[in-house]
Amino acid sequence: MINYNKALEIIKHEIEKLTLHIEEVDIYESFNRILAEDVIADVDLPPFDNSAVDGYAIKYSDRKEWKIIGEISAGNFSAFNLTENDAVMITTGSKLPANADTVIPVEDVEVKGDLLKLQPNAFIKKGMNIRTQGNDLRKNEIAVHRFTKIDAKTIAVLASCGKDKVKVFSKLKAAILATGDELIPINEKPEGDKLRLSNIYSLYAAIKEMNHTVINLGFTKDDKEIITQKVKAALEMDINLFITTGGVSVGRYDFLKEVFEEQGVKEKFWKVNIKPGKPIYFGVYEKDDKRILVFGLPGNPVSSLVNFYVFIKPAIDFIFKQNKIESINATLQNDLKKKDGKRHFSRGILFEEDGEWKVTSEFSQSSGNIVEMSRANCLIEIVEDRVNPKRGEKVKCILI
Ligand code: AMP
Ligand code: MG
Known about the structure:
With 400 residues, the protein is an alpha/beta fold.
């Protein structure tokens, strides 16, 4: 059985071969998408020298008094040619008049009629309170780099560069399918040995959270014929990822792996030395220029979601170069039981106390307990050769 790092490396190697498509969208639609072009500034930013405060623009000298000769407000420029005697009232963001090189904040002056006086305790420094043209960025330089995830900060830069249309990477398309004779729709009340379908919903949300497209194939019985039809249909679709849950272990009715093989999916690995989520299957389906990554996740709702967080999400982040570290080192608040050589991803609750990150994981850790998972905010990653981490030790917590 392969280890976690090797498995993730295999997935990254395969996902890297996907062709990423590019589309042009309206700037408002670009939010939360990944930029597919370097956006170049078509003007200096800021485009002109301007005042950083509300105050009075002057030509610097050692004077303490000036004559106010007019005013400029933002967007309403008037030309003045200042001498050392003159001051122009100016508002924040207004273009500076010719010769002005310094702005005195309004708080530091007294005004009587058209006479401006520096407050006795105030001082002036040449060049103060001026935002010079191009000091944020020069024209023709890269304002936003390709592969930037567009958020509120970056969209402001796109807007300042006049990008009303933005080239972004097309969303990946993922089809999801659940299997299990025990599953019933959620609008029915479970009786006997039946169980409401939950993991289609978690996968749907996890993919949407990453802003990709989901094709929901619903759920099916553990019937090899029906599963074959569903898998066949999925592999004919225009998708990049096919994610199934359930039926991938070694039980008598676990048909997925067999069906994948019969339908031409090439297995890359089956089972990884982790807990939970060990039975994960990964294969690749290729036909002509089509390429689908196939993930057979176990049915346990916790296992399938942990698999998504530790394999599928990092792999998608990898191709879109979203290599931000979403983990925190925290102090364990309780002993953790781990005797085996697997990599564990235990559910934890991370919190800050007295300026320190702490994590607790005092609950059953059963891979069937979806409520516990829903209350967790991190996965505590314990690597293969670490045993029984104790209260007080530092552990890596992956934010979920
Ligand atoms: P399996 O991987 O098919 O052996 O399923 C493992 C466990 O997960 C069983 O206890 C199933 O009842 C449960 N399970 C399987 N699929 C789902 C699902 N879609 N939603 C919730 N629980 C499921
Ligand atoms: Mg099953």
